[in-house]
Design goal:
The complex is a heterodimer of chains A (323) and B (318). Helix content of chain A is 33%, strand content 25%. Chain A is an alpha/beta fold and 323 residues long. Classes of the chains: A alpha/beta (323), B alpha/beta (318).
Amino acid sequence: MAARETLLRIEGLSVSFPSGDGRVTILENVSFEVFGNEIVGLVGESGSGKTMTSLTVMGFLPPSGRIEGGEVWFGHDNLLSYTEEYMRRVRGRQIAMIFQSTRSALNPLMRVGDQVARVYRVQRGLGAREARAQAIQALTRVGIPDAEHRARAYPHQLSRGMCQRVLIAMMVACEPALLIADEPTTGLDVTIQAQIFELIKDLQQAANASILLITHDLGVVAETCDRVVVMYAGQVMETATVESLFAKPIHPYTQRLLHSVLRVDKTIEMPKVDAGLSEEVAYSVAGCRFAPRCPRVLPGCWEEHPPREQAGPDHWVTCHNYN
Amino acid sequence: MNTKTQDPVLSVDELVKVFREGALTLRAVNGISFDVYPGEAMGLVGESGCGKTTAARSILRLIEPTSGHVYFVGTDLTQLSSREMRAQRRHLQMVFQDPDTTLNPRFTIRRTLSEPLQLHKLVGNGSLEERLLQTMSRVNLDPEFLGRYPHQLSEGQKQRVGVARAIITEPKFVALDEPTSSLDMSIRIHMIALLQRLQEELGMTYIFISHDLSSVRALCNRVMVMYLGTIIESGPTDEIFDRPLHQYTRALLSAIPIPDPQLRRQRILLEGEPPSLFDVPKGCAFHERCPDAQPGCREVRPILRDVGAGHLVACDRV
């Protein structure tokens, strides 16, 4: 593989939120890269910090959140050092984000065609007539049938799948180098989900852009992504190519995750031990936060956060058991 | 599970549920018939709006069916007075999709679980506590949680309370409506394992309604696929998942991502979206999206017929 251009590099990012009388570190020492022209899956379960990571990159950290350390490099810029005004110029043109809740991301009082056209006017400085023509083209490209007619619809007149296509059309209009897609098919039926992922992949390849895809669905990761970042309780446990991760998961958390996936193509063995009582996430552990659940926990795991070690080409793991 | 020599626990006959909105009629459930035998877990799958939840609610008479019959161990539920129906409820329970909207946030778990017992006069004062502790242990929840409120529990724990509430009356039949959909993957598999264990322990019969086909594969011995208010295919689980015959079932199964990057699958991408239930097409409801549609499919509605080994399909092209 030729030298890759690093598009996004997150380095030692820690973010805390108030909790009780103290603060809880929701993200701890998060590091990973997104290279040019690839789809990276950011996977983890509820509370793993995957959405918070993307909000921090976008500069959308809620006011009670505090960055405790680390850097977010986009090209040659550390985004964390920029003002809100500058970030406004980065968002959209360079990094764009698709959120989970489709309908609330669209303006309910504005025709969808006008919403897409507005992106062309604001981001590209086009005149009204030209922006409108481009908007209809963009809606056609994302597979909205009879786009000229549908452009006059309001969001509530379209299905959720169609609304998601409208949002994707707005992203296409921005031509961002990096698209962050946070569970972009939540609430959509599987046949529509398949259409949306097919569309996202096609557009990514056509534009040579990169996508950071946030998901909890390992099936989506296996079929859509090039590389994967596995998070648990605000820590990155393992990063690898999709092939390497599924063939040779190293971290005990990754192994457990892969082992617990139900499959539609075969009947899998059910777990013997019921984990009904033990699902709370241990943010308070000083070392590896998977330690309370880990079948291979070592004395040092509780106190000391393991270093990030290379386990193969493009395969990194954060675990005291490694080596 | 060979149970067909026994009488069905539940027998649904030409069940119809129509909603009217002004001049419009919406046929949410359009004449479905099936039997569920003792100890079975019957899957009912399909995409949003296909009528699967409405079907389950009509079966349990949480909403009144428009026409058709539902026989529960021989009794036609549709003919019962509301008082008679109430008496049956301890045998017919339901677990709902979203514990946040179906558990009373102002009730402790103790109160939520005690209510069905008191309602059906199933316990004297002494045995209530015993029954609560037994049920908590059955769903693997710490008895300490009895004093807590729903917001103090995690998603997975709340859903276990939903299951506990359904099984505390020791029902014969439970309709499970998407009980795993709001759960994380590693929690989901434990929920399925729990439901499996409870079914064996208590000898219950299930209908499991879900759009999550991997959960259905893990739990159910038979499956029915619904599309726009009708059952378009049904049969033993492995048969449906490994040899689907209806084009819709094929597309639905092929759309589900499989967590194996080595697998290169041929995906059947359906064109467009399901038509509105207000405007179900004539003939086969699926013909507009079917890659294999023939002119005849536009005219005649195919009936569900047996193609061998208990595999039923509603498609004239098969």
